[in-house]
Amino acid sequence: MSATDETLDSRASGHTKRVPITETLVRGQIVDGRYEIGELLGQGAMGSVVSARHVVLKTRLAIKVMRPELTLDAEAMARFRQEAQVVGAIGHPNIVDVRDFGTLPSPDGATAGASYFVMEHLEGRELGAVLSEDGPFSVERAVHVVSQMAEALDAAHARGVVHRDVKPANTLLVREGSDPDHVKMLDFGIAKLDSSRLTRRARILGTPAYMAPEQAQGAIVDARADVYALTIVLFELLTGRLPLDDPHPFKLLRKQVTDAPPSILALRPELPSELASLIARGLEKKPADRIPSMRALIESLEPFARSRRSTPTPAVSRISSLPVDAPLHEAVALETTPAASVVMRTSHAPRASHSQDVRTSRTRTAIAIAALALAAVLGAAFLFTSAPSLLRPESRGTLMGHASSAPRAAEAASSLQL
Question: Mind listing the pLDDT tens digit for each residue in 191-239?
Fold first, then answer.
């Protein structure tokens, strides 16, 4: 039986049994006199993450503890400490918050044991799991998630930190107010600091499926490597698949360097062509040809975002149902417009612009004025030619009759023109 199974069995029986959940921690253990250890939440290359509770404040927390075998590796120890320092220094709402750092006692008590750091406890779902369950995202949802990730990475880049392992597995979606897709980025364990000596050697660190070509070749990387990786995440959220894939890691690394990714329109032809162009530029092989920064990526994504604070509109027909000659702005509007207006726009000719409406209104007004003027001239001519007979008293009713009929004639002429 695994340590996790033992923990679950002890909880089910109602007893607080001190069972090991990692190589260095047991359930119910009090760390540094203030953190009571709970259950195992996950494991990674650098260490394990467990739930915890502050014994005084009663707040829920998470603790990442280093693997004990890595305590003999000076570089690994430095990298673990660097991760805590980096995340704590950035302090961004889309990055997990680090609150404390410490060292466990060694089993023999004579030397320092494994390091750990304390983080906020998050209730959420891993982005990759959400994609597997929900399927490809809508444009608005994908842009909402990726824009938050870009904001977090932009804040990291501003402090000289390159993440180098951007992927759905390192991203949680948690509920924040009315937003069920609030992003929390995790795991800066292989992040590169501009001033750090830890990442200057030619080493390949990261996940092959999301590596930029220069990173796959072991070259020095900058913020544009994260742009490449995040563009892959955007591609994956929209299609449910990676642009480049291979079961063999080294073959996949070679593909990242040499193979052109497919156009996303081949997989989702209804997407806006501007979005497809943006993704293609984010996946350029040469960093100089790529989107230059996270801030530039955020600004490029803004036209495809819809405010998630507004009430969602009813689902409408897909873009592929548009006539082939429909303008692109109409295709984009289909994703964000209520169904009633979509029906009007797909059933009739495109609506005139505001300036065209103004010109039409002015033309109609000019026609009405001209009709009134013509009626007035005709009335005056009639009065002039018929003046002698109109002086008789019995003819005054006829005069009033003609005078009162002129406006009605003009109104009829004007309405015909309209």
Answer: 665 444 444 444 567 899 999 999 999 998 999 999 999 999 999 999 9
The DSSP code sequence of 152-189 is: HHHHHHHTTEE-S--SGGGEEEEEETTEEEEEEE---T
| b/e code 346-379 from CB counts within 10 Å (16+ = b) | eeeeeeeeeeeeeeeeeeeeeebeebbeebeeeb
Nearest alpha-carbon partner for 143 in 280, 267, 278: 278
d(CA 249, CA 205): 12
d(CA 92, CA 74): 29
Query: What would you report as the CA-atom Rg of the chain, rounded to the nearest whole angstrom?
Result: 35
Contact at 8 Å (CB) between 226 and 274?
A: no
Write phi, then psi, for 398 (nearest 5 degrees).
Answer: -65, -40
Retrieve residue 95's tokens.
């990055």
Closest CA to 63 of 27, 112, 107, 89: 27
Burial 189-215 (b: 16+ CB within 10 A, else e): bbbbbeeeebbeeeeebbbbbbbbbbb
**HSE value, Cβ hemisphere, 13 Å, CA-based, for 116:** 27
Is residue 332 over pLDDT 50?
A: no
In this structure, the chain runs to a length of 418
Q: Using an 8 Å Cβ cutoff, are 377 and 352 in contact?
A: no
Q: Can 165 be counted among the known catalytic residues?
A: yes
* Cβ atoms 306, 332 nearer than 8 A: no
Quick one: tokens of 398?
A: 């006829």
- In the predicted structure, residue 7 carries a pLDDT above the cut 50: no
Which residue, among 414, 377, 383, has the nearest Cα to 398 in the 3D structure? Answer: 383
Helix (H, G, I), strand (E, B) or coil at 47: strand
173-177, 334-338, 341-345, 356-360, range with greatest mean pLDDT: 173-177
Q: What is the pLDDT of residue 228?
A: 98
Q: What is the pLDDT of residues 45-90, one digit of tens each?
A: 788 999 999 999 999 999 999 988 888 888 888 888 888 888 888 9
Active-site annotation holder among 5, 108, 165, 259: 165
